[in-house]
């Protein structure tokens, strides 16, 4: 069974205090790993897609990396506006011959950055 | 309108009511999804439509009935719901091309409360 586990469940940082979020996965045939940001009461906002081990992507203070078993979301010098829930999802093969995005999500990490 | 829109944003209904959730995507995508997000639980995939054909139904109770009249619109018809169905219902869309594993874009969600 495909599984995605995110840690920690919650993380409190001071502004400027860098840290990392973890996403561990067990899937059969990874077709991509996705990071999303979700603010309270809103839908998830797409951040990154990683396809193969060793791949890295950056956007402002965020950097995502991927290995064969896990992904990290590194946050450098975070600001209060980075506070949100960060979701990790893996794409697995869809059934039959039809291509569609079958995503399995982790439970998320709630990040709070204090000024 | 841009991106993925959902209406209504909030819905309160009794257990005997019938209501519908609406989703519209303005991205020209060919696949649409319904997810359920409950507190403390990962996003759960409910239904997938690819090229207007339902390709996945994740053991969702029959009191939830999806409809996809065209590639831009998706509905979720609700009837005789239970209080445990209270959750955030998210719609998403993606472009599914052979060999490409693209990200899904989410709408803002409908917060459903069943009394």
Describe the model.
- The complex is a heterodimer of chains A (115) and B (115).
- By secondary structure, chain A is mostly beta strands.
- Helices cover 0% and strands 56% of the residues of chain A.
- In chain A, strand 6 and strand 7 form a beta hairpin.
- The mean pLDDT of chain A is 93.
- Chain B is mainly beta and 115 residues long.
- In chain B, 0% of the residues lie in helices and 56% in strands.
- Chain B contains no helices and 11 strands.
- In chain B, the strands form 2 sheets. In chain B, strands 2, 4, 5, 6, 9, 10 and 11 form a 7-stranded mixed beta sheet that branches. A 4-stranded antiparallel beta sheet of chain B has the order 1-3-8-7, with no helix packed on it.
- Chain B starts with a strand and ends with a strand.
- Classes of the chains: A mainly beta (115), B mainly beta (115).
- The interface between A and B is medium-sized, with 30 and 31 residues.
Helices and strands in order:
The complex is a heterodimer of chains A (115) and B (115).
Chain A (H helix, E strand, L loop, with lengths): L2 E5 L2 E5 L4 E8 L6 E6 L6 E6 L5 E4 L2 E5 L3 E6 L8 E9 L9 E4 L3 E6 L1
Parallel strand pairs in A: 2-11
Antiparallel strand pairs in A: 1-3, 3-8, 4-5, 4-9, 6-7, 7-8, 9-10, 9-11
Chain B lengths: L3 E4 L2 E4 L4 E8 L5 E7 L6 E7 L2 E5 L6 E7 L2 E7 L7 E8 L10 E2 L3 E5 L1
Parallel strand pairs in B: 2-11
Antiparallel strand pairs in B: 1-3, 3-8, 4-5, 4-9, 5-6, 7-8, 9-10, 9-11
